[in-house]
Structures are given as structure tokens and as C-alpha cells.
Amino acid sequence: MVTFLAGGTGTPKLLDGATRVWDPGEISVVANTGDDVELGGHLVCPDVDTVLFAGGGVLDRETWWGIADDTTTTHEELRRLADEVGLETAPRYLDDAAQTAGREIARWRRFSGVGEFMEIGDRDRAVHVTRTSLLDEGKSLTEAICTLADAFGLDVDLLPMSDDPVATLVHTEAGETIHFQEYWVARRGEPAVADVEFRGAADAEPTAAVREALADPVVIGPSNPVTSVGPMLALPGVEAALSATPVVAVSPFVGDEVFSGPAADLMAGVGRDPSTAGVAEAYPFADALVLDDDDPTELPDRHVERTDTRIDDAGDAERVARACERALAAVADGEAETEADAEVAE
């Protein structure tokens, strides 16, 4: 059994290869829900749905968001209606009272659907309607996602990190507090980041299923350490669980160059070095790291596996997954050596 912590696109890309290395029935995927938003009354779970759609064979692999070849008729009509009467199509937060009223799972991240600042495809929207309706029928988020996983024929076990609300909020140097989706989708990562908050995390709990999954060896793929993995680490007991099991992390950097996304700006914003060294510092519980062959970073106190870590297709993903497998095997067998040990042996 092996468990992957998934957020953004890095770990879902790695899963393309992981299912060639491990039996999919023995893989659990714990997905970040800090990025979730309620948009026009429907709960949208981007990091969950990337895994859901990829496993179901329908993911748009050009964008790594939404369903391939989906139509956007409803989204376009929402934009047209707003434009017709001069309504702002930028993110429209509901007021403070509404943010903590109604459906608890959507706290601190409720947006009006007027103008719909995130593009939601028509088939994609059906998933959000189904998930939200199951929640309104009394299902937990875990139960709702399990139902959707069955509908998409997933072979892996897909788990949200918590059934409780956690919202990833970006504090900007301009003094604003905005949800991560506004920061990344609407503003394209433009505001300078002063800090990142995981609102609700201190009072949230990982589910029993997540705690059970974290007892298995864990792989953290090349995801953003701050907003993709950080919300999971902020949950009570998660770091302790990771400290008690073998953990391998794949760096999303090559030295101080990030493969994609806002990881560098976010890490700098929270006071971490935007580099592989900063990733290692963010994951003190990681027993081993998988680094790119061209990464000059030296980690004398960790076991390191090196390979080409760029993932453009399933073959690349399998190569990186096999490096993770080697690292986990070395850690589990007590044979892991640090790079410093290897230099001494030479």
C-alpha cells in the first residue's frame, strides 16, 4: 500500500506513472481541499477533481483543469448576462454573514455565480451539482467524493483531506486577503504575497480514512509545498503521522527554478527559500527526496534519488514513480544513505 498527497497538477501527473509501478488498488490519494470554493451555490473541488477526471480518463490534459472537449454554454451565458447589465465579472465574495452561514464545508470561500470568474464546463458543472446535492442530502464530503469516484470508475482510493472546512487565503502586501482561486485564477498570481493562511485548519480534522492512509508509506509529488500540500500539513496530527511513516517527496524545483505554477512566489511570501532546499526545509519529516539530475542542491542529511524529474507524459511519470519506489524501498529496508554517506563510501 502507498499513499500520495495530491494538490495542483504535479502529483496528479505523477499518478499517471504510479499506477504502472504500484497496483492501483493499493494506492490511496489524499487530496487538498483548501483550494475549494463555493461558486454560485455549488462546491468546486479543483484538486480533488483533477485526480477524479484523470483517473476517469476525461481530464483536459492541455490545461490540467476540467473535462476534455467540454462545452461552456452555461459559463458563457453567465458572462453575457453580467455584461448586458454592467455587473462586475471579477470575483464577487458573498458578505461576511453569508461566509459562515449555511453549508459549513463552504465557509470563508463563498462566491456569487454572477459573471462566474472561474470557467466551468457544462459536464464539469454536473459534477459540482451532484457533489453539492449529495452534501445537502446529508452525505459527508468523503462520501460524496466516493460516489463520484465510482461514477468515473477510479481504480485508486480518492480521499479529501478532511470533511471540515479549510480555506486557503492569500494575504497580499497591499493589505488584501483573497482566496487562493482569486489569486491564481482571476489575478494570475500578480499580487505580491505577504503570507498564506489556512483558515479553519486548527479546528478541522483529517478523516479516519485519511489517518488510516497516512499509516502507509507516503509519496508527496512535485506539488506546490505552500498551497497544494500546506493545507494538509496544517491539519492536527498530519505532520506527526508523516513523521511516523516512510515519506518520499519529489521536488517541484531544479535548484531554484520551479517547473511551473506559483510555488516560488508563494514560498518566498511565507518566508521560505524558493528552491529545492526550501522544499526540504518545508518537509522535515521526509526521509528521502527525489531530485532532478541537474539539481545542484546538496542534502547531506537526507537520502536522495536522482532522475530526470520533468513530467510531460506517462513515460516520464513512470520514470519518476520508479525513483520514488526505490527511495521508499531504501527507507523501509533501513538501507537509505545520505548523499554525504555516499561521498564517504566513494
From TrEMBL:
Any one biological process term the GO annotation gives: F420-0 metabolic process
Pathway membership, UniProt: Cofactor biosynthesis; coenzyme F420 biosynthesis
Catalytic reaction list: (2S)-lactyl-2-diphospho-5'-guanosine + 7,8-didemethyl-8-hydroxy-5-deazariboflavin = oxidized coenzyme F420-0 + GMP + H(+)
Gene3D superfamilies for this protein: CofD-like domain, CofD-like domains
Cofactor(s) needed: Mg(2+)
Pfam families for this protein: CofD (PF01933)
Subunit and interaction comment: Homodimer.
Purpose: Catalyzes the transfer of the 2-phospholactate moiety from (2S)-lactyl-2-diphospho-5'-guanosine to 7,8-didemethyl-8-hydroxy-5-deazariboflavin (FO) with the formation of oxidized coenzyme F420-0 and GMP.
Record's protein name: 2-phospho-L-lactate transferase
Organism: Halorubrum lipolyticum DSM 21995
Lineage per the UniProt record: Archaea, Methanobacteriati, Methanobacteriota, Stenosarchaea group, Halobacteria
